[in-house]
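debug: dumping io for the single-chain case to check the tokenizer round-trip. Nothing else runs in this session.
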Amino acid sequence: MPTTSPRTATDSHQSIRFRPSKVFLALPAYNEEEALPELLERVGEAFADSGLPYEVVIVDDGSADDTARIAAQMSYQMPVHVVQHKVNQGLGITLRDGLREAVDRAGERDIIITMDADNTHPPGLIDRMVRMIHEGCDVVIASRFQPGARVVGVPIERHFLSVGARVLFTMLFPTRGVRDYTSGFRAYRAGVIRDAFARYGDDFVGETGFSCMADVLLKLRKQGCLFGEAPLRLRYDQKGGDSKMRVFRTIWLTLKMLGRHRFGGASK
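debug: decoded output
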């Protein structure tokens, strides 16, 4: 009786292997020498727990302190790549450069995360956000307005700013799956960011200040992205260093940006 050999992992039609998605963490950083060491330690612990392959892209925006040196030193302990601005250029340009560097390094199945470098965002949430991308979302926002979210230690003026922005954006640009339009802690499918740069060029992140996060979201909305949210536990009480946000300037820039989107100036 003829015998057949059992199939092995070396059989060509059985040997297709899918590598897990790699996560690229883009961190815009300006004068974060107090917060950065602890944040990167927590990032390393989170990825050790999840087992996900990762790389951290830190864009130092012309810091006057030891942010760049600390970031370079951490590259000996974990996969860190540092991009430096010689002079301070603002959050928008720094975010843009971080996204560009990440998407240039990423494959089509990879995921790009942006978060603040001031240690207020919990790296432990990244695993859940990545799972939501795998479940079908193009963009996942760590939201202050989902059930289970908590905000600790945020100054009252910043709280009113985020609540007011939510009301205004919901009225003018209602987006399914989105309650928090200004959170900087997000996960993106790498292909979505690549498509956005192909469509908008550097204008994909066209705002220079904190209004850049809402600007990016509205442009991805025009691309027909599927959004989801995960509840954020924002720990402002763990923040290292002073806040860089100028609240009234941010309000003014956000209103101007909304006007451009509303009346067609930001469309393309």
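debug: round-trip ok. Residues 121 and 234 are 6 Å apart (CA to CA).
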